[in-house]
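We examine the record.

___
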Amino acid sequence: MDLGINGKRAVVCASSKGLGLGCAQALAAAGCDLVMNARGSEALEAAAEAIRAAHGVTVQTVAADVTSDAGRAELLAAAGDADILVNNAGGPPPGMWHDWDREDFIKALDSNMLTPIAMIKALVPGMMARGWGRVVNITSQSVKAPIPQLGLSNAARTGLTGYVAGTSRQVAGKGVTINNLLPGIHATDRAEALDGPVAKREGISIDEARARRAATIPAGRYGTAEEFGAACAFLCSQHAGFIVGQNILCDGGATNATI
Protein backbone atom coordinates (compact mmCIF):
# COMPACT_ATOMS: atom_id res chain seq x y z
CA MET A 1 0.00 0.00 0.00
CA ASP A 2 1.23 3.48 -0.88
CA LEU A 3 0.94 5.43 2.37
CA GLY A 4 0.91 8.74 0.54
CA ILE A 5 3.60 10.35 2.67
CA ASN A 6 6.55 10.28 0.29
CA GLY A 7 8.57 13.46 0.84
CA LYS A 8 7.05 14.28 4.22
CA ARG A 9 9.38 15.29 7.05
CA ALA A 10 9.17 13.14 10.19
CA VAL A 11 10.69 13.66 13.63
CA VAL A 12 11.15 10.40 15.53
CA CYS A 13 12.27 10.56 19.15
CA ALA A 14 14.35 7.82 20.82
CA SER A 15 14.91 6.22 17.43
CA SER A 16 18.39 4.73 17.61
CA LYS A 17 17.01 1.31 18.57
CA GLY A 18 13.90 -0.57 19.62
CA LEU A 19 10.41 0.58 18.75
CA GLY A 20 11.54 4.08 17.80
CA LEU A 21 13.96 2.65 15.26
CA GLY A 22 11.21 0.41 13.90
CA CYS A 23 9.06 3.50 13.36
CA ALA A 24 11.89 5.42 11.70
CA GLN A 25 12.60 2.53 9.35
CA ALA A 26 8.95 2.19 8.35
CA LEU A 27 8.55 5.91 7.72
CA ALA A 28 11.74 5.95 5.65
CA ALA A 29 10.46 3.00 3.63
CA ALA A 30 7.36 5.11 2.89
CA GLY A 31 9.61 7.88 1.57
CA CYS A 32 9.78 10.22 4.55
CA ASP A 33 12.86 12.29 5.28
CA LEU A 34 13.78 11.90 8.92
CA VAL A 35 15.04 13.80 11.92
CA MET A 36 16.18 11.07 14.29
CA ASN A 37 16.87 11.70 17.96
CA ALA A 38 18.47 9.73 20.78
CA ARG A 39 20.82 10.44 23.66
CA GLY A 40 23.73 8.31 22.44
CA SER A 41 25.38 9.52 19.24
CA GLU A 42 27.14 6.29 18.23
CA ALA A 43 24.06 4.08 17.97
CA LEU A 44 22.06 6.96 16.50
CA GLU A 45 24.56 7.60 13.69
CA ALA A 46 24.78 3.90 12.89
CA ALA A 47 21.00 3.62 12.65
CA ALA A 48 20.75 6.74 10.50
CA GLU A 49 23.42 5.55 8.08
CA ALA A 50 21.71 2.19 7.69
CA ILE A 51 18.42 3.93 6.88
CA ARG A 52 20.05 6.25 4.35
CA ALA A 53 21.65 3.28 2.61
CA ALA A 54 18.46 1.22 2.59
CA HIS A 55 15.93 3.87 1.57
CA GLY A 56 17.79 6.82 0.03
CA VAL A 57 16.04 9.40 2.19
CA THR A 58 17.58 12.36 3.96
CA VAL A 59 18.28 11.64 7.61
CA GLN A 60 19.38 14.30 10.07
CA THR A 61 20.45 13.25 13.57
CA VAL A 62 20.21 15.09 16.87
CA ALA A 63 22.00 13.40 19.75
CA ALA A 64 20.39 15.13 22.73
CA ASP A 65 18.25 14.53 25.80
CA VAL A 66 14.86 15.66 24.59
CA THR A 67 13.56 15.82 28.17
CA SER A 68 15.88 18.77 28.83
CA ASP A 69 15.09 22.29 27.64
CA ALA A 70 18.40 22.52 25.76
CA GLY A 71 18.04 19.12 24.12
CA ARG A 72 14.48 19.79 23.07
CA ALA A 73 15.44 23.18 21.62
CA GLU A 74 18.15 21.50 19.56
CA LEU A 75 15.73 18.89 18.23
CA LEU A 76 13.07 21.47 17.41
CA ALA A 77 15.60 23.62 15.56
CA ALA A 78 16.40 20.62 13.36
CA ALA A 79 12.72 19.65 12.98
CA GLY A 80 11.83 22.72 10.96
CA ASP A 81 8.45 22.38 9.27
CA ALA A 82 7.89 18.78 10.37
CA ASP A 83 4.81 17.03 9.03
CA ILE A 84 5.02 14.03 11.36
CA LEU A 85 5.99 13.69 15.01
CA VAL A 86 6.57 10.37 16.74
CA ASN A 87 6.96 10.89 20.48
CA ASN A 88 8.83 8.12 22.25
CA ALA A 89 10.78 7.67 25.46
CA GLY A 90 11.95 4.75 27.54
CA GLY A 91 9.71 3.80 30.41
CA PRO A 92 10.56 4.35 34.08
CA PRO A 93 12.02 1.42 36.04
CA PRO A 94 9.69 -1.11 37.65
CA GLY A 95 9.17 -1.22 41.39
CA MET A 96 6.62 -1.22 44.19
CA TRP A 97 4.18 1.52 45.09
CA HIS A 98 5.93 2.26 48.39
CA ASP A 99 9.36 2.66 46.74
CA TRP A 100 8.63 5.80 44.73
CA ASP A 101 9.15 9.33 46.00
CA ARG A 102 8.10 12.65 44.53
CA GLU A 103 11.29 12.97 42.48
CA ASP A 104 10.66 9.59 40.88
CA PHE A 105 7.25 10.75 39.73
CA ILE A 106 8.59 14.09 38.51
CA LYS A 107 11.20 12.30 36.40
CA ALA A 108 8.57 9.95 34.96
CA LEU A 109 6.24 12.84 34.18
CA ASP A 110 9.02 14.82 32.50
CA SER A 111 9.94 11.90 30.27
CA ASN A 112 6.60 10.29 29.48
CA MET A 113 4.08 13.13 29.72
CA LEU A 114 5.49 16.66 29.78
CA THR A 115 8.12 16.21 27.05
CA PRO A 116 5.65 14.75 24.51
CA ILE A 117 3.25 17.59 25.33
CA ALA A 118 6.01 20.16 24.79
CA MET A 119 6.85 18.62 21.41
CA ILE A 120 3.18 18.64 20.41
CA LYS A 121 2.78 22.29 21.43
CA ALA A 122 5.88 23.24 19.45
CA LEU A 123 5.16 21.41 16.19
CA VAL A 124 1.38 21.09 15.85
CA PRO A 125 0.68 24.81 15.22
CA GLY A 126 2.82 24.65 12.08
CA MET A 127 1.05 21.49 10.96
CA MET A 128 -2.31 23.21 11.46
CA ALA A 129 -1.20 26.23 9.47
CA ARG A 130 -0.18 23.96 6.58
CA GLY A 131 -3.40 21.93 6.82
CA TRP A 132 -1.85 18.51 7.45
CA GLY A 133 0.01 16.71 10.20
CA ARG A 134 0.35 13.49 12.13
CA VAL A 135 1.38 12.86 15.72
CA VAL A 136 1.82 9.37 17.14
CA ASN A 137 2.71 8.95 20.79
CA ILE A 138 4.25 5.63 21.77
CA THR A 139 2.77 4.95 25.19
CA SER A 140 1.99 1.53 26.71
CA GLN A 141 -0.66 -1.13 27.08
CA SER A 142 -0.64 -0.10 30.76
CA VAL A 143 -2.94 2.84 30.02
CA LYS A 144 -5.64 0.31 29.13
CA ALA A 145 -4.85 -2.18 31.89
CA PRO A 146 -2.39 -1.03 34.57
CA ILE A 147 0.68 -3.14 35.28
CA PRO A 148 1.25 -3.09 39.07
CA GLN A 149 5.05 -2.97 39.02
CA LEU A 150 5.02 -0.17 36.44
CA GLY A 151 3.20 2.40 38.56
CA LEU A 152 5.38 5.29 37.40
CA SER A 153 4.67 4.48 33.77
CA ASN A 154 0.96 3.86 34.46
CA ALA A 155 0.63 7.33 35.98
CA ALA A 156 2.68 9.38 33.53
CA ARG A 157 1.45 7.76 30.33
CA THR A 158 -2.18 7.91 31.43
CA GLY A 159 -1.71 11.63 32.02
CA LEU A 160 -0.52 12.03 28.43
CA THR A 161 -3.49 9.97 27.25
CA GLY A 162 -5.90 12.37 28.93
CA TYR A 163 -4.18 15.36 27.36
CA VAL A 164 -4.31 13.80 23.90
CA ALA A 165 -7.99 12.90 24.27
CA GLY A 166 -8.96 16.55 24.45
CA THR A 167 -6.26 18.12 22.31
CA SER A 168 -6.68 15.77 19.37
CA ARG A 169 -10.29 16.81 18.94
CA GLN A 170 -9.36 20.49 18.92
CA VAL A 171 -6.85 20.17 16.08
CA ALA A 172 -8.46 17.53 13.85
CA GLY A 173 -10.43 20.12 11.88
CA LYS A 174 -7.13 21.54 10.61
CA GLY A 175 -6.03 18.22 9.12
CA VAL A 176 -3.88 17.16 12.08
CA THR A 177 -4.40 13.85 13.83
CA ILE A 178 -2.97 12.82 17.20
CA ASN A 179 -3.15 9.21 18.29
CA ASN A 180 -1.45 6.90 20.75
CA LEU A 181 0.09 3.55 19.86
CA LEU A 182 0.21 1.19 22.83
CA PRO A 183 2.89 -1.50 22.71
CA GLY A 184 2.80 -4.68 24.69
CA ILE A 185 5.93 -6.75 25.03
CA HIS A 186 8.25 -6.52 22.04
CA ALA A 187 11.68 -8.01 21.52
CA THR A 188 13.58 -4.89 22.56
CA ASP A 189 15.91 -3.72 25.32
CA ARG A 190 12.84 -2.77 27.36
CA ALA A 191 11.76 -6.40 27.43
CA GLU A 192 15.23 -7.35 28.61
CA ALA A 193 14.97 -4.81 31.43
CA LEU A 194 11.65 -6.28 32.55
CA ASP A 195 12.54 -9.95 32.11
CA GLY A 196 15.89 -9.72 33.87
CA PRO A 197 14.54 -8.97 37.35
CA VAL A 198 11.90 -11.69 36.94
CA ALA A 199 14.56 -14.26 36.09
CA LYS A 200 16.64 -13.20 39.07
CA ARG A 201 13.70 -13.20 41.47
CA GLU A 202 12.41 -16.58 40.32
CA GLY A 203 15.83 -18.17 40.02
CA ILE A 204 15.33 -19.07 36.37
CA SER A 205 17.16 -18.32 33.14
CA ILE A 206 16.34 -15.28 31.05
CA ASP A 207 15.14 -17.60 28.27
CA GLU A 208 12.71 -19.28 30.65
CA ALA A 209 11.47 -15.90 31.85
CA ARG A 210 10.82 -14.90 28.23
CA ALA A 211 9.05 -18.17 27.50
CA ARG A 212 6.78 -17.72 30.51
CA ARG A 213 5.86 -14.20 29.47
CA ALA A 214 5.32 -15.21 25.85
CA ALA A 215 2.92 -17.92 27.03
CA THR A 216 0.68 -15.21 28.53
CA ILE A 217 0.31 -13.48 25.14
CA PRO A 218 -2.44 -14.90 22.91
CA ALA A 219 -0.19 -14.49 19.86
CA GLY A 220 2.31 -16.73 21.66
CA ARG A 221 5.33 -14.52 21.09
CA TYR A 222 6.87 -11.11 21.59
CA GLY A 223 6.18 -8.47 18.97
CA THR A 224 8.82 -7.15 16.59
CA ALA A 225 9.98 -3.59 16.10
CA GLU A 226 9.24 -3.96 12.38
CA GLU A 227 5.54 -4.73 12.79
CA PHE A 228 5.18 -2.00 15.41
CA GLY A 229 6.81 0.44 13.01
CA ALA A 230 4.40 -0.56 10.26
CA ALA A 231 1.45 0.23 12.54
CA CYS A 232 2.97 3.62 13.34
CA ALA A 233 3.57 4.40 9.67
CA PHE A 234 -0.07 3.64 8.85
CA LEU A 235 -1.26 6.05 11.55
CA CYS A 236 1.01 8.65 9.92
CA SER A 237 -0.35 7.94 6.46
CA GLN A 238 -2.83 9.75 4.25
CA HIS A 239 -5.26 6.89 4.89
CA ALA A 240 -5.52 7.55 8.64
CA GLY A 241 -7.00 11.05 8.55
CA PHE A 242 -10.26 9.91 10.16
CA ILE A 243 -8.56 8.23 13.12
CA VAL A 244 -8.51 10.83 15.88
CA GLY A 245 -7.60 10.59 19.56
CA GLN A 246 -7.43 6.82 19.64
CA ASN A 247 -5.42 4.42 21.80
CA ILE A 248 -4.46 1.53 19.57
CA LEU A 249 -3.08 -1.60 21.17
CA CYS A 250 -0.22 -3.45 19.49
CA ASP A 251 0.21 -6.20 22.06
CA GLY A 252 -0.58 -9.56 20.49
CA GLY A 253 -3.90 -9.67 22.38
CA ALA A 254 -2.25 -9.49 25.80
CA THR A 255 -4.62 -6.85 27.15
CA ASN A 256 -7.80 -8.67 28.09
CA ALA A 257 -10.42 -6.03 27.39
CA THR A 258 -13.63 -5.81 25.36
CA ILE A 259 -13.05 -2.18 24.37
